[in-house]
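Practice problem 4.
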């Protein structure tokens, strides 16, 4: 089975049939990968598989009109495209993207140079039995036999939440209660401790990751305990088949040198319980949050955010995916909460650890330091010992 794209005109008339999906996604892939990989990449190095919605935790289908090509996605049976890139035997990238995100640059390029473009109004994605050698090409490329869908789409379904019940509100009767968010108390003032950064785990040492500018331009600076960095970057056993993740715990302060910035001190990274995962995504359940709240009840610290893995090497141009960002925005609503990302290269197992936080309507890379064991990550602005508050109640923290 192969994946092709049809360009449609008014009345669903077919203007271009069976375009090679590998060539359509090529412009998007080129923007995602590092320069070293881009110089060697050919369409035959790309595998494309359409993926339908597999559960209620998945995001909505792609937007009806794409911003670049201005085409509508018709017969949207598939919500995602799984894209894998293998160059000279090495898997250098594999992830899923919403259909519109992946195909829009390539479709816009096709429209620019095709005389029939002015009649194009929509496109559709479908699977065919034929060889890709017989599909229409955007630029000549040899066919490649794809791997089976079964081998690409392993997943672990999120377990059912026990004790849950659906409540249908009566639209004719106003609710007898209301839910409101309790204002987050300001974090105490502190400044970065006097310690030498442990460079062993510094992602800036990798040529594929851009350096993060110093100073208060980033909303959050992560101060990561050396034990946590060592575990996430070296010793923790992560699956090579499905994404995994969990919660970041620790303490948060306002930077006394720039009070608009927060210092997030990460002291633990606990694995999420009762989660769902696949090669394509990672999801929490309500039970995942209940378990971490029970853990925090007996341990010092609070919920600083989450982390998960991507099963492909890190690149400067691609961090959190179009699925990760909405998950963070809807689940971890406090501005200083972090999203940790561990990229794992499939062949070598090499890992890169990065952190992100919200800045307005976007997620941006955070500068982070690895704090040596036995060293204080921060010094209180009033020279007093920090008083760490326990994890707030369910009404205070989103879950």
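Answer key:
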């Amino acid at each position: 089975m192969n994946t092709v794209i049809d360009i449609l005109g008014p009345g669903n008339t077919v203007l271009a049939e069976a375009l090679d999906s590998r060539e359509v996604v090529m412009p998007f892939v080129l923007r995602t990968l590092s320069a070293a990989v881009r110089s060697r990449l050919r369409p035959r190095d790309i595998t494309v598989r359409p993926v339908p919605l597999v559960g209620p935790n998945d995001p909505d289908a792609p937007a009806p009109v794409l911003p670049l090509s201005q085409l509508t996605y018709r017969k949207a049976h598939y919500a995602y495209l799984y894209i894998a890139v293998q160059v000279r035997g090495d898997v250098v990238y594999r992830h899923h993207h919403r259909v519109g995100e992946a195909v829009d640059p390539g479709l816009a390029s096709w429209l620019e140079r095709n005389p029939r473009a002015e009649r194009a109004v929509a496109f559709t994605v479908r699977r065919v039995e034929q060889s890709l050698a017989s599909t229409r090409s955007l630029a000549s490329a040899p066919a490649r036999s794809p791997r089976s869908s079964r081998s690409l789409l392993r997943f672990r379904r999120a377990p059912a939440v026990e004790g849950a019940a659906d409540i249908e509100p009566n639209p004719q009767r106003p609710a007898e209660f209301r839910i409101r968010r309790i204002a987050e108390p300001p974090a105490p003032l502190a400044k970065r401790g006097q310690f030498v950064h442990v460079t062993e785990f510094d992602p800036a040492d990798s040529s594929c990751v851009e350096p993060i500018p110093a100073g208060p331009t980033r909303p959050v600076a992560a101060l990561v305990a050396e034990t946590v960095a060592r575990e996430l970057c070296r010793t923790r056993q992560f699956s090579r088949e499905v994404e995994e993740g969990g919660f970041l715990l620790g303490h948060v302060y306002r930077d006394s040198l720039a009070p608009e910035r927060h210092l997030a001190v990460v002291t633990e990274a606990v694995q999420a319980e009762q989660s769902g995962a696949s090669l394509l995504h990672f999801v929490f359940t309500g039970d995942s949050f209940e378990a971490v709240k029970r853990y925090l009840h007996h341990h010092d610290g609070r919920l600083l955010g989450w982390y998960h893995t991507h099963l492909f090497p890190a690149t400067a141009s691609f961090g959190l995916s179009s699925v990760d960002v909405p998950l963070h925005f809807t689940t971890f609503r406090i501005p200083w909460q972090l999203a940790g990302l561990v990229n794992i290269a499939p062949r070598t197992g090499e890992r890169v650890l990065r952190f992100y936080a919200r800045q307005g309507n976007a997620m941006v890379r955070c500068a982070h330091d690895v704090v040596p064991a036995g060293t204080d990550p921060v010094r209180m602005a009033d020279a007093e010992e920090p008083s760490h508050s326990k994890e707030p109640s369910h009404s205070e923290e989103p879950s």
